[in-house]
Amino acid sequence: MSIKKTILSGSTVTGNLTLGNYIGAINNWGQLSKDYNCYYMVADLHALTVKQDPKELRERILSFFAQYIACGLDPNKNTLFVQSHVPEHAELQWILTTLTPMGYLNRMTQFKDKSSKQKEILAGLFTYPILMASDILLYQTDVVPVGEDQRQHLELTRDIVTFFHNRYGETFTMPKAYIGKVGAKIMSLQDPNAKMSKSDENEKAYVSILDAPKKIQKKIKSAVTDSETTVSFDPEKKAGLANLLTIYSVLTGKSIDEIVKSYEGKMYGHVKVDLAEIVCEKFRPVQENYNQLMKNQDHLHELMKTGRDKAREKASKTLKLVYERVGLI
Ligand code: TYM
User: Fold this and answer.
1) Radius of gyration (Cα) for the chain, nearest Å?
2) CA 222 to CA 12: how far, in whole Å?
3) Nearest to 72 by CA among 244, 309, 306, 283
4) CA separation for the pair 10, 6 (Å, rounded)
5) Backbone angles phi, psi at 240, to 5 degrees
6) In sequence order, what DSSP letters do the residues of 119-132 get, joined into one string?
7) Cβ(147) – ligand 1 distance below 6 Å
8) Could you tell me if 14 and 42 are in contact, meaning their C-beta atoms sit under 8 angstroms apart?
9) CA distance linking residue 82 with residue 43, whole number of Å
10) pTM of this structure
11) Residue 197 C-alpha to ligand 1 middle, in angstroms?
12) If we measure between CA atoms, which residue out of 203, 208, 205 comes closest to residue 195?
């Protein structure tokens, strides 16, 4: 019998889960549980790198957990858990922090991006990628399914494994990123040169998984495109339309060529109307599941506990091994 490889991934609890998160991550996660031993976490500790309202954060953690399940992650087939429920994440992070050069963290483009918008840069934002490495390494993860924006963090995780192994000997599985070929970077609906981000200040820039159909239609209708009219796929010159066609292709399984052909002689508006319908249809059952799940929050808390126990079983073993390797009693 072959032993299943391990997968871990997660999303940070800031803002609302978006169509970008769905296409680049969550939608792929659900399909992996057949072949892999999957751990999916709600990354709440990562969310603290941005100022949070405690009450809202608490509500959002539960909501993200319910959205994972509503999107098709079966808690019986995957280990679904909340990061802060497994204290080993923060403990391993400290050990890894003692091995990570500042220069490596300084190179992280997400850090440069986020810190450039802040008056005072907090240390947690700087060390955030080490917490991500800790998340991954605790489960002896083989594969990490993420969107394109996380590639650099995965490379850093691999560097950290090498630093650790050079000093203390083989301990961790070397993880690999799994980045889908299409849809790994869904762009903002308002700025086709920027990633669709759940923390965008402009709500029109993203579609959230829980947006009402009317809102989805409005946002897609007002998506920024160029002033031409012929429907064709050209990510350089027609980035906005190319983004809409990419979303269309991923959600329907049709090739871009096939989609472009079917709009011959038609205007961008037709693509937008149809795409809005496709997105609404995709999220309709997700929203129904979500509303059902949120009616029984005690059950969600029970599921969180089950996930926590399963996650801790693995995480505590790895941490014990690490403590032994580094010489702690
Ligand atoms: P986060 O919450 O920003 O995003 C969650 C997942 O969604 C992907 N994603 C996108 N994919 C395509 N197009 C987009 N516009 C888009 N926006 C986001 C992200 O690449 C990610 O896969 N630090 C991570 C969470 C995390 C994590 C981990 C991930 C914490 N620990 C360990 C993997 C392994 C984050 O903030 O993702």
Assistant:
1) 21
2) 27
3) 283
4) 14
5) -65, -50
6) SS--HHHHHHHHHH
7) yes
8) no
9) 7
10) 0.96
11) 10
12) 205
pLDDT of residue 14: 92
For residue range 133-181, list pLDDT tens digits in order. Answer: 999 999 999 999 999 999 999 999 999 999 999 999 999 999 999 998 8
- Cβ contact 120:140 at 8 Å: no
**Residue in 139, 146, 172, 189 to alter for ligand 1 test, most ligand atoms within 8 A of Cβ:** 146
**Pair of tokens at residue 38:** 């999957």
Q: Which CATH number fits domain 203-291: 1.10.3860.10, 3.40.50.1980, 1.10.240.10, 3.90.1030.10?
A: 1.10.240.10
Q: φ and ψ at 193, to 5 degrees? A: -95, -5
Question: Cα–chain-centroid distance for residue 131?
Answer: 15
Q: How far apart are the first and last CA of the chain?
A: 37
pLDDT at 180: 85
Helix pair 268-295, 297-326: axis angle to 10 deg: 90
CATH 3.40.50.620 in the chain, residue ranges: 5-179+296-326
Asked if residue 22 has pLDDT above 60, the reply is yes
Q: Which residue has the tokens 């066609």?
A: 245
Q: Which residue is catalytic, options 34, 51, 112, 114? A: 114
Q: What's the one-letter identity of residue 173? A: T
Structure tokens at 109: 């483009």
Whether the pLDDT of residue 274 is over 90: the answer is: yes
Element (H, E) at 41: strand 36-43
- Cα–ligand 1 centroid distance for 132 (angstroms): 11
Give me the numbers of helices (H) and strands (E) for the chain, helices first please.
14, 5
Do residues 257 and 245 make contact, with C-beta atoms less than 8 angstroms apart? Answer: no
Residues of CATH 1.10.240.10 domain(s) within the chain?
203-291
Cα 82 to Cα 34: distance, rounded to the nearest angstrom: 22
Residue 217, both tokens: 């239609």
